[in-house]
Amino acid sequence: MINGTLVNLRAIDQGDVDNYLMWLNDREVTRHLAMRYQVSRLAEEAYIRDNGSRQMGYGRGGNYAIETKGGVHIGSIGLHYVIPENRKAHLGIMIGDKAHWSRGYGTDAMLTLLRFGFDEMNLHRIDLSVDADNARAIACYRKCGFVEEGRLRRQRYVRGAYVDQLWMGILREEFDALHGHTAGEKPR
Amino acid sequence: MRNVCERMPSFENGVFFAIETKDGRHIGHTNLFNASPEERRAELGIMIGEQDCWSQGYGSDAVRTICRVGFEDMNLERIVLQVFSYNPRAMAAYGKCGFVEEVRMRQDMWHEGAYHDTIVMGLLRSEFAVPVAGVA
Q1: Smallest Cα–Cα separation from B93: which of B61, B129, B52?
Q2: What is the pTM of this model?
Q3: pLDDT digits over A52-89, tens only?
Q4: Contact residues of A toward B, CB < 8 A
Q5: Which of A149, A151, A154 sits opposite B78 (nearest CB)?
Q6: pLDDT of A139-166, one tens digit each?
Q7: Distance between CA A15 and CA B74 in Å, rounded?
Q8: What's the rounded Cα separation, in Å, for the pair A185 and A181?
């Protein structure tokens, strides 16, 4: 369990299938995700079995379940495409439980995973892409310290129209300057 | 190499070409890959392996030609590519073909003892001018 302030991050397991089925088949949730087709129970079970049966590690990055401190599973977050020579990773997040949108859980999950990526995986840089019309997410990423690095024109086709995507990145020194070190952690 | 060439070229598998000069000399390759049918987008890759053919317009001509394949044959809306900040010659060639710098990923690439930026350049179908030269 990786502890944040509002949330904990933990491995995803078979018992999480029902939640992912509900979220990934909800078009309001997937509006800004790289998900557009309906997911069957069989496919979701197979996905979690295949991905969950291997130990998470550096190259695989990994997806974590986001839980509130009260133990409610509200979404997932992960680091992908980790490249050891460049010490970089790409971040993806979903808060599937809409009752927990806009209440700081996503931001806390981001800060928790960024801390893990920099302090445990020894990454140099973490980046993400976000639909240019997803203002709530962009505000969250800015709050975490992500810097807008450019705009991919007509990168995504969603609900009948092309939309731009922003590319945002954060360097380890930027993260440390903004957020310092968590209490109890030894400075490097 | 086998992996790439053994698959039948298609939208899903991508297309992969050897680049030859008009007198039949093989100087490099270029390809379109990671094509997304919903977004009608693909990524472009190119290498001019023969160093004496650098900076002579072969790369630009190959890029324009494969972009025609992308837009006219594959019906793409957009082609993207990545280039590193220590390769200004390539960036200039892509710019000449109409590619626009869209993203600069800071310190994204470790190369010869230092971090460098990775630049994403994009070309929209509406921006692609069919070249007069380069058409067989």
Answers
A1: B61
A2: 0.92
A3: 777 778 877 689 999 999 999 999 999 999 999 999 99
A4: 36, 85-88, 124-125, 127, 147, 149-157, 162, 167, 169, 171
A5: A154
A6: 999 999 999 999 999 999 999 999 999 9
A7: 43
A8: 7
Question: Residue A92 CB: number of other CB atoms within 10 A?
Answer: 16
Q: What is d(CA A8, CA B16) in angstroms, rounded to the nearest whole number?
A: 46
Q: Where are the beta strands (DSSP E) in B11-77?
A: 15-20, 26-36, 41-48
Chunked into runs of 10 residues, chain B (136 residues) has average pLDDT values of 77 96 97 97 98 95 98 97 97 96 98 98 92 53
Beta bridge partners of B42: B79
> What are the E-state strand segments in A86-143?
88-95, 125-131
B4 forms bridges with which residues in the sheet?
none
Q: Quote the strand ranges of A38-122, DSSP E.
A: 62-68, 73-83, 88-95
Residues of B with CB under 8 A from a CB of A: 38-41, 77-78, 80, 100-110, 115, 120, 122, 124
Q: How does B58-80 read in b/e, with b if 16+ C-beta sit within 10 Å? A: bbbbbbbbbbebbbeebebbbbb
Amino acid present at A30: T
- Tokens at A16, concatenated: 């999480």
- DSSP letter at A14 equals G
- Count of CB contacts below 8 A, A vs B? 60
SS3 B99: coil
- Closest residue to A154, CB basis, from B105, B108, B124: B124
Report how far residue B56's alpha carbon sits from residue B9's, in angstroms, rounded to the nearest whole number.
29
ipTM of the shown complex = 0.90
Q: Is the Cβ–Cβ distance between A151 and A132 less than 8 Å?
A: yes
Between CA A155 and CA A22 the distance in angstroms is: 27
Scanning chain B, the segments in alpha helix (DSSP H) are 2-6, 58-68, 88-96
Minimal Cα–Cα distance from A86 to chain B, Å?
A: 5
